[in-house]
Amino acid sequence: MYRIIHLALTPHPIPSSQSAIDYACRAALYFGAKLTVTSPHLSVRTPRHVIAGGMMAGMARDFERDAAVKSAEVERYVRQTATNMGIEVAIVPIAERWPSSASDMTWRGRTSDLCILGLPQSGDEGRLDVEDWIFGVGRPCLIYPDESGDALSFDSVLISWDFSKSAARAVCDALPILKTAHNVRVLTVRGEKDIPVEDIKTPILELLTAHDVKVEFLEVELGDHSIGRVILDQALSIRANLLVMGAYGHSRIKEFVLGGATKEILNTTRIPLFMSH
In terms of domains, do 184 and 137 share one? Predict the structure, then answer.
């Protein structure tokens, strides 16, 4: 069971959406968990050069003031929403030097059971921040696309299963969700890569059944489509409320160069994702 859920806020460039905050608060309510929140307060690095630094100092202070207003608004909404739902929340403001990487913040989530991240659908910076958390936190991540609009629900869950280490970790990390879901389907896509197991179906069904998860198995061919598109199409066809999958089975560099399911799904999904790396 998840007892501590961590929400990572972002004030810049796109503040965390109210829908992502609602989703995190409802997750804490659903599991009876405490919600801990990291709220970065930005401090801009300026050049040390006398002339360049002096020219940029004023712009930097304006940027910091704007970010501080956004941080305060987001924190206020978190407190109000948590109070209305009756959940325990602890918001920790932390100084963040900008520009920086979200990987500098991920240690804040390592003592939680589950991290929740908002996923902006515009621009690359938000997705890169999510990737930093997936790689750096060492905990499962529940990712809410800002364009989803879906309320928290685990009625229908799809597991993308390829017998990889990351997929196995994601399944086990998601068990508290899977045990409460009404419909769980395990999907294997044939033709994307060699799976060195004769019987890919029985072991995963035995594991889930042992944990009282009601589960069905689906197997489809990749065909002429990309792996990410096939997975998302299957999730949409069963009206999945959540997609559970391992993140970055290849190295991050290899996925960046060659592409892969994780990158494509993060770029295009409107379905909440549960990912472990």
Answer: no
86 torsion bin: left (phi>0), alpha (psi -120 to 50), beta (else): left
**H or E segment at 234?**
helix 227-237
Structure tokens at 52: 């360049």
Residues 96 and 171 in one domain: no
Q: Identify whether the C-beta of residue 12 lies closer than 8 Å to the C-beta of residue 70.
A: yes
**Residues 79 and 16 grouped into a single domain:** yes
Domain that residue 130 falls in: 4-145
Residue (of 219, 211, 142) closest to 185 by Cα position:
219
pLDDT band for 49, please (50, 70, 90 cuts): very low
Sheet holding 156-160, edge to edge: 89-98, 34-44, 4-8, 114-119, 141-145, 273-276, 242-246, 156-160, 183-190, 215-221
What confidence tens digit (pLDDT) does each residue in 210-251 have?
Answer: 999 999 999 999 988 899 999 999 999 999 999 999 987 655
Kindly state whether residues 108 and 9 are assigned to the same domain: yes
Alpha helices by DSSP H, 105-151: 125-136
Residue 142 burial (C-beta neighbours within 10 Å; 0-12, 13-18, 19+) = buried
Q: State whether 210 and 269 are in the same domain.
A: yes
C-alpha distances (whole Å) from 137 to each of 205, 275, 276 are 29, 12, 10
Domain count along the chain: 2
Largest CA distance in the chain: 68
